[in-house]
User: What shape does this take?
Amino acid sequence: MLKTLLTGTALAAGFGLAAQADTIHIANIAELSGAGAAAGSVWADGVHLAIDEINENGGILGMKVDMAEYDSQTDPLQSRALVQKAIDGGAFALLGTVYSSSTVVNMLVAQQNGIPQFTGSEAPSITSKGNPYIFRTAFGAQKGMPKIGAFLKDTLGVDKVAIAWANTEYGKGGHDAFTNVAEEMGLDIVADVPSEQGQADFSADVLKIKNAGAEAVFIYLTEEESARFLIEAEKQGLDIPRVGDTVLASQKVIDLAGGAAEGALGHVGLSADAPVPLLKEMDAKFTERFGYRPDHNAIKGYIGAYTIKYGTEIVGEIDSQKLADAMHGLCLDAETYPGVLMDICWDETGEVSRESFMVEVKNNAQEITTILPPN
Amino acid sequence: MAELLQILVSGLSAGAIYALAAVGFTLLWQASQTINFAQGEFVMLPAFFVLAGMTIFGLPLWAAILTAMVLSLLILGAMFKKLIVEPMLPHGTLPLVIATIALGLLMKESVKEFYSAQGQPFPTLFPQHVLDFFGASISVQDICNLIVAFAAIISLQLFLGRTRTGRAMQATAQDPRVAEILGVDVKRMVMYTFLINGALAAIASILISPVYLAKFSNGETLGMIAFIAAIVGGFNQIKGALVGGLLIGVIDNVAAVYISAEYRAAIPLILLIVIIMVRPQGIMGTSEGRTV
Assistant: This one.
């Protein structure tokens, strides 16, 4: 009897080990609730789509991906604790967070543990801190600003501009990058209006911009705040061009703001409306599964998950350090690595280089007006 | 001058909606010594009744609003009184306060769980036109919000002051024992107060959600502002809550435009501290006695 029990236990343990060996652990830490839910939950859906596809097609190095998901509640301290929890749980690579205010805090934990982290954050500070384990899935704000400055100056012919920005790590990064570009290009910033994360009432902000004599407003807010700003701008008849970077003309903002988003202009790194067949394919799969169209955050999450797959397969083994090392200077072309959707390169800081687009919101969708080369 | 006019109208419009929630605070306090810390969530929830009516049951907007009104009266009015206030009140004010905090959390998390954690677009009731008024661009939506909110508060004042039921409610608030001796059905009057609070919360919710978006966490800000408005205006006067709400709406906008957009959130709190130090009963409040 004892022999049978011991044999059974040994067999069970053996099967357990075999099962463990056939599984690769990664974790996604995202803003599934709180002020950043509009960004984080969409990012998470993009990740889910990619992970399910990866598993259906043989996983990574023949192993199934076991993904743990954590809700940061858009709280930087919570996100920091969850990154530690994810690493303690055996994650060999991390996805998230999306909000820069969280990433700038939690990436230190991943760095201390030597775990590569693929983030959706866009604040310039993320890749300027010399952290060798952080990698973006879309380029930082500092890369888009020169393109926006040139668009304002040369295409719209604007001299006086107002800026409405989120008083967060993300917003401050974009604000500083934009003001530097504006100074270089001789754009006069006539109103500089910060707002708080989760701010609901933008009437004073719009009024201030309206009465400042601005010829265009640059809006650098997160999804829900962008939508509220656009609704208020429409309510108060703010009839100057509304220009943004990535978020303003995103599908999520269009869905939230409805008609108020019409005519908004933006520079976007990723768009489901881009004339890129792989993006169109991803858009169709995502829309069919989740019942809404993917925005840049969904695409970033999707690309992040596939980047872990391709990076790991290039390394040839499950090794966090080797994956981080391999990512620096890596370029993946979309033809060979279709999960990245567009040709993409990472530099030594984890910053991304990729084509981007100028868009205008027309009939509740993004319309690509110009394709811009990588910078 | 034109800028100031715009700020005033915009501030009054937001302030009038805050006032609706603040009036609810004072009503419940007057009628049953209930400090409802779930008041913000009471304003958040009806918007989701409307959205659920439209998206899940396919109702047109007007029917969804009517349904939301009825649900608000039942759930935020009658059920709140029967299931939370009546069982908790005999144990004192503090357990009831804690119960309302718990209720607020439950409502917030329930909406997050069963509807969505994301902000939801909410249909606007009024035209999105802008009127030019002495050089100031005045939003029609702001004016309509102001009119509806004022109409609700004036109707309430007329109901309380000019009708037999309203006067019975005032008597109940002043001294329930004497009111009962005089033949007033005290329990029914208190129930009416809770129903009115449910209706005011629903109106505030429907007015504010087109601009703020419908979101499970909206109650955090709205509840805090309404509470501050009620204290600043005077917790024992409806007109005090009205003044407090309007004042905070205007001061918030003036501060954001002329002082600092960055520190605008601090201004109502500074006002609250000043009022507590200088006039603890509030601007319109009286230091003793209660009326509704």
